[in-house]
Amino acid sequence: MSRLLKLAIVGLVASCGGGNYSAPRQLDNACAIVAERPAYYRAMKATERKWGVPIHVQMAAIHQESKFIGDARTPHQYALGVIPIGRQSSAFGYSQALDGTWEEYQKETGNRRAKRDNIRHATDFMGWYMHNSSRRLGISKWDATGQYLAYHEGRSGFARQSYLSKPWLVRVANQVGQRAAMYRAQLVACRKG
What we know:
The chain is mainly alpha-helical. It has eight helices and two strands. A two-stranded antiparallel ribbon has the order 1-2. Helix 6 crosses helix 7 and helix 7 (144-159) runs antiparallel to helix 8 (167-189). Mean pLDDT is 86; it is low at 4-18.
């Protein structure tokens, strides 16, 4: 086998492992995000078709949760300011899904091999979660603010209106709603919405 062919095979195999978990360069431009990462757009489009959650709502929630970083984790907690005692929660991946909620998703959808650091699986998870929030709580799938509150607080927390005692969360949810509106307008302008 020629040296060039061997290098090509090694390069191909190496590109299959791991993933590009870094954030896209222009997080405030939906068109730039989908141009830079077309797999994100394909994943969100498939989720929109399957679950009815618009792409711009998915994008705004992913931006808030992980800034589109596939292996995002919550920060470590420290005792006495220096002794690491673990992470703030089990949230991981694009969707920052918690272990228990991810397991529920895997069980209900039959997708036992789904991974939180896979954009297709993460958007499908978000679609599944938001679809069920719509069905159980009556939140429109187009309401990024309401969907984010239910996503962050859990459906029972949303039903109890636990977010009302968290002004910071209401502020963040409103920012998610504003970002969704911005992303929607941008996607329409670049004919992806």
